[in-house]
Amino acid sequence: MKNKKILVVDDSAAVQEMCRKVLTDGGHTVAVASNGVAALTYPELDTIDLIIIDTNLRDVSGIDTTRQIKTDGELCDKAILLLVPEEKASQNESVELMGANAWLMKPFDPAVLLNKVNMVLEEQEVTRIAREHLRKAAERTITRMAEEHIRQAVEEKTQIMVERALQMVVSQVDRKARREVETKINNLSAEKEQELVKVTVQEVARSTIEKLAEKRVQEAMERILHTETERSVRRTAEEQFPTMIRERINDSIETILPKEISRRVQKEAEDMVPDVSERLVSIINVAADKIVPKLAKEIVTSMTTNLVAAELDKNLPRLVQTQVSQEVDRLVSDRMEPHLRAQAKALRRKITLLMVVFIALVVLGGGVLAADYMFGPFLKRPNSTQSSASRENQNIEVAPESGNPTPGKWVDKIEQVFSPAKK
Amino acid sequence: MDLEGRFTSPEALADIMRRAAEESFSGELSVRCGVNSASHFWFYQGKLSSSANPDRSRRLGRLLLNRGLVDRATLEDTLAYQADFARTTPIGRLLVQRGHVQANDLQEVVRIQVEDDLSQALTCIEGFYIFTPVENGEQPGEPPLVQIPVSSAIDDVLSRHSQWGRIREKVKDDNMIPVVVKLGGSNEREALHLSTRDWHILSLVNGYYDVGCISARSGLGRFDTFKALEHLITSGVVVLQQPKLPPAEAYSADGNSATNTADAASKSAGSSSSRWGSLLARLRDDAESPAAEKDPARRLQFESPVGFMTEVCNAITEKLLLNADFVIDPSDEKLAERHWRQILMTFPRADLVSAEMNRLDCSSFDRYTRTLGVSGPMETIYLDTIEALTRYLRTLYLVSAQRLGTRAARSLFVDIMEDIRGRATIANSSNFFFKEVAAEILA
Question: What ipTM did this prediction achieve?
Fold first, then answer.
């Protein structure tokens, strides 16, 4: 045994040197260490073939080191040779090896050391070879057993597969037959089913149609009823409403219209008064400036204003407060509004007409006054020198008889013009 | 550039060295820091070729041995060759020339040595320097095998100084002893990832050698060794313990003591005076007791010269401790343990000899010698042990010469060595020449 790597662990440098010399001369490579910890931590411990350990190391003994090596999973295969001091070997006949492969007493003969080392290495080699053989034998056995198992397994599997195949064929045949039977049954069933479906569909359709028809009829009836009802209502309303409306309008015209007219007039007057008054005043002013003497213009203006104001004061609150106006409003808002609108339109036309008449009358009055002014002295009769007081009490109709009309008479005429409208 | 002068900071010394490099100086630079011995740096055309430090116990041969780059027999043979035929040729060059060491390995070892010496010199706050250039007409000889650029070496050393503070917080003292801590289990082992360098340092920890010894044995230099130790301590694999024995004063080969023995005695006199008294009483009792009476004619059998040297050491120690004029230091209660431990730090392969109860014990060595002899696998161990014992006796001689006077010490040593040698029968002593060893001890 040569070219093995040996680690010598001894705390004596002399023993280290001795071992190194002996083992190196024996053809081995030697590393030395002085303590057990160094043995355990040797960086190249994997490559070591044999560890020679002194049992009598200081601090950490060789026995402890051996125990640590032999209980380490990675190191337990390492061969160990213990160096036992002479006195300890003689004290204990049997040396406690603690798993070491061999031991040698110190001091040792170099040849004995070398022989012991070689013996341990050979044992280790034999052990290694035996382990290798065992491993190979185990592998062979395992392979053989595996093959046997595989063969058995294959047979079993084949049998199982055949059985399964048969079962599969049987089941397929069975399935096929069943499928055919089922197909036929299905076909028959399908026909029956179709008939049944047809009948069912017919029934369902019938019932649906009936329901639909019923629904349609109901809807048609409802629609007709609604239409008829509406028509009847409309007809009734058309029949009844005009009469009623007419009656109401008549009533309104009779009762409400005057008031309404008054109110509207009032309102229109309110709206119009400033304008109309202004226009009137302007017209009158123009006319007065041109025609009427200054005094007559002042009287007419003041009187007109007073009269309009008095009329407004008298009618306006009453018109506003009357229930009729509410009714009229409601009727107007409902169905009578078109009628009222028509009436109002007619009324507006009337008012416009009245205004035209009024303007015409004013123009006429102005013309009369002008004529009277220009031609009065020529037409005056001798007995016409009545006092102004008695002339004020005379009717306009008697104006031709009484000579020149006074402003008070024109006012009365204006009131007469307005009075039919009031009626 | 002034050839000599005073410097007042490490940076000033670094500048002096840089200037020497710029001017392609060839020669020797001696640096004396305070009252300490001078460090020496040799320049070749502005590059560092080697260094020497009297405080450093490591020699090049020892470094090469520790790193396993050369075996002891080869080194001894080359040293003998150097002494006989090539006195002016450095040992490193000889080893390379004779094919024992690769030039790259030698350069690496010398580089570490020079950097360590440079690092120590650049911690000096104040001192003197002197340049000794190669004299006119003297040929610098062959270019040295190792030529280190000065600037890069200084930069490396200065950059390490910043890390030294952190490392020194963990590794405070060279005399501290690293001890491994048992791992919790495979998980802890798997979680621990050590670099090759860290593991190399860990593999040297045996609970006996101190930090300084491990640093010397590692062959990595002080900085890398301390850095690896700091990492191991941080990882929780190693803890540092105080030494059980006070460190012995170091004696160099030329007889200079690094520390004053009298000062050491006065420092520790109060604390262990009672134990000291008991030791002296025990030694006197042993000397006066009938059992202790020795047969002057008794023959002594030794398995190897190591046994003989050990017997000499023990006889001298015993004699010295019975001398009231010698016993002035309470730490002499463990004189043998202290000094032998100090020796082992330099000669770790001599650890088959142990010290206990002020006696050296070589029974383990003898057991191996009976089985293996002193050749073959034991040869290096044997030679190291003989050298270690020689160094131990030399140390004892220097201590006794300091305390008893040179003449008395020599007389005592010669009497004992001759007495034992006269009665001794030494096996495996074909390469052991007692007179050479005695001359080395009493030089």
Answer: 0.80
